[in-house]
Amino acid sequence: MAYNLLKGKRGIITGALDHNSIAWKVAEKAHEEGATFVLTNAPIAMRMGEINDLAEKTGSQIIPADATNIEELTHLFTQAQEVLGGKIDFVLHSIGMSVNIRKKIPYTELNYDYFMKGIDVSAMSLHKMLAVAKKLDAINEGGSVVALTYMAAQRTFPFYTDMADIKAMLESIARSFGYHYGVEKKVRINTVSQSPTRTTAGSGIKGFDNFYDFADKIAPLGNADAESCADYCITLFSDLTRMVTMQNLFHDGGYSSTGVSMDVMDKIGGEG
Ligand SMILES: NC(=O)c1ccc[n+]([C@@H]2O[C@H](COP(=O)([O-])OP(=O)(O)OC[C@H]3O[C@@H](n4cnc5c(N)ncnc54)[C@H](O)[C@@H]3O)[C@@H](O)[C@H]2O)c1
Predict the structure, then answer these.
(1) Contact 120/163 with Cβ under 8 angstroms?
(2) Which phi and psi (to 5°) does residue 235 adopt?
(3) Could you state, in order of their start, the residue ranges of all structural domains in the chain?
(4) Considering the chain, what is the average pLDDT of its residues?
(5) If DSSP codes are grouped into helix, strand and coil, which group holds residue 167?
(6) Region 10-265: CATH code
(7) Helix and strand tally (H, E) in the chain?
(8) How confident is the model at residue 180, as a pLDDT?
(9) Which residues pair with 91 in a beta bridge?
(10) pLDDT category of residue 93 using cuts at 50, 70 and 90
């Protein structure tokens, strides 16, 4: 059911790689809620071509941009305003990549070049996007920026390796930039800390399926899926959350507040 929560709003949505991507669902929901937006992803990700289907379905243009490249980001924010006919009201940062995870390198043996790459792509890219947007004055007053993160920024999940540190940095950038952009332009910046979700990025993590099931059995509501994450992002883009900024918001079915569940207790120890 749609509520017209984003009627008249213009956005930029990063990170829709295929129909499993969290960003894909956000784009579908934003369209349903009356927003117009451009889709963007790294030029290399376009080769798979699935994003064209999403663009067609949502009546959106695609503007390729590597989120680590200031020139390309400047082109993205400039073009997006031209295509959409005005300043931007919401931005989704849905970008994550760790070469160390891809290559299954353990945390204590990280390759530092890969680590730097992961930081640039997955955390510093948020700073770069915000810096470009601010310089161009591309985001409307009261605009909303949401970046996706994971709870490994607060608690240790051994298989999440360098992405844990990278997400901690991402969340910190949201707070730090949120202060400056808030004071100057009333732009809000938040991170949404999402449950494990079956996507290309998610499934690349070692032991993902076991962990997915574990989290599902701990969370009182079960794991939050990509579609409900998209719903939450829509509320954060809407005016209903106009005073929410600089927050890390858990969207995880209650996992982050649960020590253990009876389900998991029963599975490991029976009645005791
Ligand atoms: N899947 C999960 O379990 C989970 C849980 C919590 C948070 N997240 C976060 O959600 C976000 C989206 O991931 P997803 O799970 O939908 O996976 P996904 O693989 O569908 O999306 C990741 C996106 O990042 C893009 N990307 C990579 N390098 C880029 C670059 N240099 N410039 C621009 N874009 C680039 C990819 O092309 C891809 O579209 C990520 O930040 C991820 O860490 C995912």
Answers:
(1) no
(2) -65, -35
(3) 10-265
(4) 96
(5) helix
(6) 3.40.50.720
(7) 12, 7
(8) 98
(9) 12, 145
(10) very high
